Amino acid sequence: MRYRHDPEGGTAPVDPAPGERMLGSWVCWDVGRRFGVLLDALAMADQVGKGDKPFAPWDSEGFAVAFEPDGVTIASNFGDPDSTVYPVDAVRAALEDYWAFLVALPEREGQRRFRPDLAEWEADLLQWEQTWQLRHPYRGRLGIPLEGPA
Predict the structure, then answer these.
(1) Peptide bond between residue 149 and the one before it cis (omega within 30 degrees of 0)
(2) Is pLDDT above 90 for 148?
(3) How far apart are CA 8 and CA 130, in angstroms?
(4) 36-77: per-residue pLDDT in tens?
(5) 119: which DSSP letter?
(6) Which of these, 2, 25, 33, 47, could form a disulfide with 14 (CB 3.0-4.6 Å)?
(7) Could you tell me the superkingdom of the organism this chain comes from (predicted)?
(8) Looking at residue 14, what DSSP letter applies?
């Protein structure tokens, strides 16, 4: 899936394929530009892709999302009453594309409290691992280093 950055700082899917509208909406509006939330989604997709349960349920105000080994169900909590079930591989691919898209964007302005010496995604990776007391399963993929930063 391709994404674009809008002038107000948000993101949007670019010409989503038929049936991918709900997936693109969830990625852009629920995950948004928050690397920590994207790291949650990537880890959950990785876990259910291996047949495991996700480390935690998805928590959101805007979308009801259920990660299961047989698919990821996404429903908007506002407006569209329908839910859509996506294959785990399709969700994982959309999230991986979104990671590459976000990492390529310029850093957002503003002062960060946690590890301002690092790129935002690196700081959020360390914070994610500290919060969940887990090594992120995407270490060694998508340009995420196997080790570090310290």
Answers:
(1) yes
(2) no
(3) 31
(4) 999 999 999 999 999 999 989 998 889 999 999 999 999 998
(5) -
(6) 2
(7) Bacteria
(8) E
